[in-house]
Design brief:
284 residues; alpha/beta; Ribulose 1,5 Bisphosphate Carboxylase/Oxygenase; Rossmann fold; 2 domains; 4-stranded antiparallel sheet; 4-stranded parallel sheet; 9 helices; 31% helix; Ribosomal protein L1; Ribosomal_uL1/biogenesis; Ribosomal_uL1-like; Ribosomal_uL1_3-a/b-sand
Length: 284
């Protein structure tokens, strides 16, 4: 595997990942925990509040869609989407990939009761919403979901974009609406969300991205680390990726949610010592 940050950094990354895995397994041998890649940047990725996850493709999947409890939030009324997605023989219904479908109106009602909102938070692993209602979710779900990006909803489209799509007139409004729903297209988006990782543009100088778990082999984690850094630094992945030019990447570390950060890469300058010179400080 060609490492985007170079062979020397790959060696440093391998050493740090192995040390981190050894530490986690000695401390928490009974369960696997997520491994995060921390990227420090010279400039913020955004100046505005942004809570929309962007998918980063990985060669080693984080999860299977069949392992996730999925909640779908739709426009009102949900009938066109519910009928298509729950119809016998559809790509979604046969595998019971979506556990519950609620409308935006129903979600607002649930959110008024904090106990019901907490139940919703705990009951579902993955929350997705029609892109046409997605912008309303931060005000409805609030800090329970959005503070520290605890359980961010993902945006999906109910059908493939098509300028020639047939629009229908709403019952309560003369405005034409797109009520198409393509189960196969929805399924493909859900599979991508479950399989891959994501990032949220930060208004600070650091972003955190899940790259695997502590019961993985070191090689699989290195592959996912390389995938993440490549996607975020290479211009060919714009406009979603390529948001961190290589000269703006100050440092890369790996850690769990509770461990200290282990060094992978640090941008060289006249006063910077090499990772080799300082590595003993990071031995557990």
């Amino acid at each position: 595997m060609s490492f985007v940050l170079g062979d020397t950094v790959k060696q440093d990354a391998e050493r740090s990942v192995k040390a981190l895995l050894s530490h986690v397994q000695s401390e928490q041998a009974s369960r696997a925990v997520p491994i995060y890649l921390m990227l420090n940047t010279a400039e913020p990725l955004t100046r505005q509040s942004d809570h929309t996850p962007r998918i980063i493709p990985l060669r080693n999947r984080l999860s299977k869609l069949s392992e996730e409890r999925v909640l779908l939030i739709t426009k009102d009324p949900s009938t066109p989407y519910r009928d298509a997605l729950t119809k016998k023989g559809s790509a979604i219904a046969d595998d019971e990939l979506i556990k519950e479908i609620v409308t935006l109106k129903k979600l607002k009602s649930i959110a008024r009761d904090y106990r019901k909102l907490t139940k919703l938070f705990n009951e579902y692993d993955l929350i997705v919403a029609d892109h046409r209602v997605y912008k309303f979710l931060p005000n409805i779900l609030g800090a329970k979901f959005y503070l520290k990006n605890k359980k961010l909803p993902f945006m999906v489209q109910m059908a493939k974009p098509d300028p020639e799509a047939k629009l229908v007139k709403g019952k309560k409004s003369p405005k034409l609406k797109d009520e198409r729903c393509h189960p196969e297209y929805v399924k493909s988006q859900l599979k991508s969300i479950a399989k891959n990782t994501y990032f949220v543009p930060s208004s600070g100088d650091c972003i955190s991205i899940k790259v695997g778990f502590s019961d993985w082999e070191c090689g699989k984690l290195l592959e996912n680390i390389n995938d993440v850094v490549t996607f975020l630094t290479h211009g060919k992945f714009r406009p979603i990726g390529g948001v961190i030019p290589m000269d703006k990447l100050k440092g890369v570390n790996v850690k769990t949610s509770t461990s200290m950060a282990m060094p992978v890469y640090k941008k060289a300058d006249k006063t910077t010592q090499s990772i080799d010179e300082n590595y003993d400080e990071f031995n557990f």
